[in-house]
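Issue 218. Parser rejects a valid record. Input:
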Amino acid sequence: MDPLDFTDRVVVVTGGTRGIGAAIASAFLAVGARVLVCGRNQPSTVVPDFVQADVREPTQAAALVAAAAERFGRIDVLVNNAGGAPSTVAATASPRLHAKIIELNLVAPLHVAQAANTVMQQQTGGGVIIMVGSVSGTRPSPGSAAYGAAKAGLHHLATSLAAEWAPAVRVNSVVPGPVAGDADLRLDPAAVARTVPLGRPATPAEVAGVCLLLASPMASYVTGAAVAVHGGGEWPGYLADLRGDVR
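Output the parser choked on:
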């Protein structure tokens, strides 16, 4: 039996119409899953199953999960991918902007996870919830303080839900570093090569691959974990120039 065969399993991916979310949806589709994606706007390209939803709104988050359960009869995997934030200086950003960033990156995943858990707890086989976090939630994030704080909260939320909702539901986090094509990042290839040990950003497909692993039977005893997908982390600025000397 192929542990990466997701035939007839149902996967919901929030923010699944572009970037990392689209790569995650495509990865699950490629291994046979039935995939439903959501976004705030209609996608510019055709996607298999789409629900227009702003998951910051609790009623829309609940409606998304209800639509998936009604359409497919169950939900096996939820990937809470929707998120992001513009670069902004904490000292002058408006209270409304900070609130919206935290709503999208922390509160919305909780809303969707609550609704999905209700379905998963009642079905044979339970389910898996994956939070897409960020290294911004593991270290200082000047220029994205609210976003980093929200992602730190998301990582902690996953550990708490994993404890509360076991054994039927496993909850884990994927923690990407810089990802190529991320619209919220202005990546300087030279800077990434200089500071990331693997010398490049991740591809969206590489983040998606870790989601596949965590959703599969190969990770059946993994819950409450945060899996870093960051190319080895980031060398501190004052040590980056020493990289060539320590190899």
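Fixed in the parser; the record now loads. The chain has six helices and seven strands.
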